[in-house]
Design goal:
It is a single chain. The chain is mainly α and 187 residues long. It has a single domain, classed as Intergrase catalytic core (hpI Integrase, Chain A), CATH 1.10.443. The chain has eight helices and two strands, in the order αααββααααα. It has a two-stranded antiparallel ribbon with strand order 1-2. The longest helix is centred in the last third of the chain and has 24 residues. The C terminus is likely disordered.
Protein backbone atom coordinates (compact mmCIF):
# COMPACT_ATOMS: atom_id res chain seq x y z
CA UNK A 1 0.00 0.00 0.00
CA UNK A 2 2.68 2.49 -0.93
CA UNK A 3 1.76 6.19 -0.89
CA UNK A 4 -1.64 5.42 0.63
CA UNK A 5 -2.44 6.58 4.13
CA UNK A 6 -3.80 3.71 6.13
CA UNK A 7 -6.87 4.17 8.27
CA UNK A 8 -7.59 2.88 11.73
CA UNK A 9 -10.31 0.32 12.21
CA UNK A 10 -13.43 1.57 13.93
CA UNK A 11 -14.12 0.19 17.38
CA UNK A 12 -16.89 -1.98 15.95
CA UNK A 13 -14.59 -3.28 13.22
CA UNK A 14 -11.89 -4.16 15.75
CA UNK A 15 -14.36 -5.98 17.99
CA UNK A 16 -15.80 -7.86 15.00
CA UNK A 17 -12.31 -8.75 13.77
CA UNK A 18 -11.18 -10.18 17.10
CA UNK A 19 -14.42 -11.94 18.04
CA UNK A 20 -15.09 -13.43 14.59
CA UNK A 21 -11.58 -14.59 13.68
CA UNK A 22 -10.39 -18.08 14.52
CA UNK A 23 -7.22 -18.85 16.52
CA UNK A 24 -4.43 -18.00 16.15
CA UNK A 25 -5.65 -14.91 14.26
CA UNK A 26 -8.03 -13.60 16.90
CA UNK A 27 -5.13 -13.52 19.38
CA UNK A 28 -2.73 -12.02 16.83
CA UNK A 29 -5.18 -9.25 15.92
CA UNK A 30 -6.01 -8.50 19.56
CA UNK A 31 -2.37 -8.31 20.63
CA UNK A 32 -1.43 -6.21 17.60
CA UNK A 33 -4.09 -3.61 18.41
CA UNK A 34 -3.52 -3.79 22.17
CA UNK A 35 0.22 -3.30 21.93
CA UNK A 36 0.18 -0.79 19.07
CA UNK A 37 3.57 -2.00 17.88
CA UNK A 38 4.78 -2.08 14.29
CA UNK A 39 4.71 -5.51 12.64
CA UNK A 40 8.52 -5.59 12.64
CA UNK A 41 8.47 -5.33 16.46
CA UNK A 42 5.60 -7.77 16.90
CA UNK A 43 7.62 -10.37 14.99
CA UNK A 44 10.41 -10.14 17.59
CA UNK A 45 8.23 -10.97 20.61
CA UNK A 46 9.60 -14.11 22.25
CA UNK A 47 7.69 -17.37 22.40
CA UNK A 48 7.15 -17.48 26.16
CA UNK A 49 4.13 -18.66 28.11
CA UNK A 50 3.63 -15.27 29.76
CA UNK A 51 4.22 -11.74 28.45
CA UNK A 52 7.64 -10.19 29.08
CA UNK A 53 7.91 -8.29 32.34
CA UNK A 54 10.37 -5.71 31.07
CA UNK A 55 10.03 -3.11 28.36
CA UNK A 56 9.85 -4.05 24.68
CA UNK A 57 12.48 -2.72 22.29
CA UNK A 58 11.21 -0.84 19.24
CA UNK A 59 13.64 -1.21 16.37
CA UNK A 60 12.58 1.82 14.29
CA UNK A 61 12.87 4.31 17.14
CA UNK A 62 15.61 2.43 18.99
CA UNK A 63 13.69 3.03 22.21
CA UNK A 64 12.16 0.81 24.85
CA UNK A 65 8.47 0.82 25.63
CA UNK A 66 6.86 -0.36 28.84
CA UNK A 67 3.68 -2.37 28.45
CA UNK A 68 0.98 -2.70 31.08
CA UNK A 69 -0.44 -6.19 30.69
CA UNK A 70 -4.12 -6.55 31.51
CA UNK A 71 -5.79 -9.83 32.37
CA UNK A 72 -7.34 -9.94 28.89
CA UNK A 73 -4.10 -9.17 27.06
CA UNK A 74 -2.31 -11.83 29.12
CA UNK A 75 -5.08 -14.29 28.19
CA UNK A 76 -4.56 -13.58 24.47
CA UNK A 77 -0.77 -13.89 24.86
CA UNK A 78 -1.12 -17.29 26.56
CA UNK A 79 -3.68 -18.46 23.98
CA UNK A 80 -1.34 -17.50 21.14
CA UNK A 81 1.56 -19.19 22.92
CA UNK A 82 -0.52 -22.39 23.06
CA UNK A 83 -1.19 -22.30 19.28
CA UNK A 84 1.14 -24.31 17.12
CA UNK A 85 4.47 -25.93 17.79
CA UNK A 86 7.29 -24.62 19.98
CA UNK A 87 9.15 -21.87 18.16
CA UNK A 88 11.45 -18.93 18.75
CA UNK A 89 8.85 -16.17 18.38
CA UNK A 90 5.27 -15.71 19.58
CA UNK A 91 4.01 -14.62 16.14
CA UNK A 92 4.60 -17.78 14.19
CA UNK A 93 4.55 -16.52 10.60
CA UNK A 94 7.80 -14.82 9.64
CA UNK A 95 6.74 -12.99 6.48
CA UNK A 96 5.06 -9.65 7.38
CA UNK A 97 2.91 -9.83 4.24
CA UNK A 98 1.16 -12.90 5.71
CA UNK A 99 -0.36 -10.66 8.39
CA UNK A 100 -1.45 -7.96 5.92
CA UNK A 101 -3.03 -10.54 3.60
CA UNK A 102 -4.90 -12.23 6.45
CA UNK A 103 -6.17 -8.93 7.83
CA UNK A 104 -7.38 -7.95 4.35
CA UNK A 105 -9.11 -11.33 3.90
CA UNK A 106 -10.82 -11.12 7.29
CA UNK A 107 -11.87 -7.50 6.68
CA UNK A 108 -13.46 -8.49 3.36
CA UNK A 109 -15.14 -11.51 4.94
CA UNK A 110 -16.61 -9.28 7.65
CA UNK A 111 -17.77 -6.65 5.16
CA UNK A 112 -15.42 -3.81 6.12
CA UNK A 113 -14.43 -1.14 3.66
CA UNK A 114 -10.95 -2.44 2.79
CA UNK A 115 -9.30 0.41 0.89
CA UNK A 116 -6.69 1.96 3.18
CA UNK A 117 -6.73 -1.03 5.56
CA UNK A 118 -3.29 -2.49 6.14
CA UNK A 119 -1.65 -4.18 9.08
CA UNK A 120 -0.53 -0.74 10.27
CA UNK A 121 -4.25 0.01 10.73
CA UNK A 122 -4.08 -1.92 14.01
CA UNK A 123 -1.34 0.43 15.27
CA UNK A 124 -3.44 3.44 14.27
CA UNK A 125 -6.47 1.90 15.97
CA UNK A 126 -4.41 1.65 19.16
CA UNK A 127 -3.45 5.33 18.85
CA UNK A 128 -7.05 6.46 18.34
CA UNK A 129 -8.28 4.41 21.31
CA UNK A 130 -5.52 5.87 23.52
CA UNK A 131 -6.41 9.37 22.31
CA UNK A 132 -10.12 8.91 22.98
CA UNK A 133 -9.52 7.51 26.45
CA UNK A 134 -6.86 9.93 27.63
CA UNK A 135 -6.22 12.71 25.13
CA UNK A 136 -3.21 13.59 23.04
CA UNK A 137 -0.63 13.09 25.82
CA UNK A 138 -1.95 9.59 26.53
CA UNK A 139 -1.71 8.76 22.83
CA UNK A 140 1.83 10.16 22.67
CA UNK A 141 2.92 8.07 25.65
CA UNK A 142 1.12 4.96 24.40
CA UNK A 143 2.71 5.24 20.94
CA UNK A 144 6.14 6.04 22.42
CA UNK A 145 6.47 9.09 20.16
CA UNK A 146 9.23 11.58 20.98
CA UNK A 147 7.28 14.56 19.72
CA UNK A 148 3.70 15.61 20.35
CA UNK A 149 3.54 16.93 16.78
CA UNK A 150 4.18 13.40 15.49
CA UNK A 151 1.27 12.12 17.57
CA UNK A 152 -0.96 15.00 16.47
CA UNK A 153 -0.24 14.24 12.81
CA UNK A 154 -0.84 10.52 13.39
CA UNK A 155 -4.16 11.08 15.19
CA UNK A 156 -5.46 13.76 12.84
CA UNK A 157 -4.78 11.59 9.77
CA UNK A 158 -6.36 8.58 11.45
CA UNK A 159 -9.45 10.47 12.59
CA UNK A 160 -9.88 12.15 9.19
CA UNK A 161 -9.82 8.79 7.42
CA UNK A 162 -12.03 7.20 10.06
CA UNK A 163 -14.63 9.96 9.67
CA UNK A 164 -14.65 9.31 5.91
CA UNK A 165 -15.50 5.67 6.56
CA UNK A 166 -18.28 6.64 9.00
CA UNK A 167 -19.71 9.18 6.55
CA UNK A 168 -19.67 6.67 3.69
CA UNK A 169 -21.37 4.08 5.89
CA UNK A 170 -24.18 6.50 6.74
CA UNK A 171 -24.98 7.18 3.10
CA UNK A 172 -24.29 3.76 1.62
CA UNK A 173 -27.46 1.74 2.03
CA UNK A 174 -27.04 -1.85 3.11
CA UNK A 175 -28.71 -4.64 1.15
CA UNK A 176 -31.34 -4.94 3.87
CA UNK A 177 -32.13 -1.23 3.72
CA UNK A 178 -32.42 -1.30 -0.07
CA UNK A 179 -34.75 -4.30 0.20
CA UNK A 180 -36.88 -2.52 2.78
CA UNK A 181 -37.08 0.55 0.54
CA UNK A 182 -38.18 -1.60 -2.42
CA UNK A 183 -40.90 -3.20 -0.27
CA UNK A 184 -42.15 0.22 0.79
CA UNK A 185 -42.23 1.40 -2.83
CA UNK A 186 -44.27 -1.66 -3.86
CA UNK A 187 -46.94 -1.02 -1.20
Amino acid sequence: MSNVTTRPLTTNELVALVTNSKPPWKHIFFLSAYLGLRISDLLTLPWTETPPEGPIYERKTKKYRSILWSELSTHHWKALWACGQPREYLFQFRDPSTYRKRLQAEAKRLGFSTPRVSYHSLRKTHAVIAYRRGGMLAAKASMNHSSLSTTERYISEALRLESTVFFDAIFTPSTKTVGEIRELNND
